[in-house]
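Re: the 178-residue chain
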Amino acid sequence: MKRNLVVALVLIVVAAAGRLVPHVWNVAPVAAAAMLAGAVLPRRYAVGVPLIAMFASDLVIGFYAAPVMLTVYGCFAVSALIGSWLKDMKPTKILTASLASSTLFFLASNFSVWATADWYPKTWAGLELCYTLAIPFFRNTVAGDMIFTGVLFGAWALVRQGVAYLENNRALTDQTIS
């Protein structure tokens, strides 16, 4: 339990900090942190990671239209659930999950903007316009999610290897001493 709490807190800090530092639009580690949380933590912790990170950083950045905000938060919660599919951490599955998370975010958040804001006509053409104008942000989302997913999952693999090495050396040392 203690390990789960520490991992969750580290991922929350990484995700929230990534939104607070200056960055390119839609390039932030929230989805990657959510997916890693889903892969390594129990679901109740995993889903909480992106929601707490978003809420904490929104306290600083500011909140926005409730329907869109709830959609965004929901997308990141689903990203954590997508991460639970990554328990074996195979690179192709991680890549697929990252693309799925980015695509879900693009489709759901832009649909929410179209449906609830006054920016676009409530017609098929308005919906097409909304998605078309969002394509540059989608590119950023995909690139950011890929980069941060690689960094976070890579860091997790290195940490696991380091812990295994230390545990193995401790066991060897204990055998030598006995």
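The chain has one domain: 2-177.
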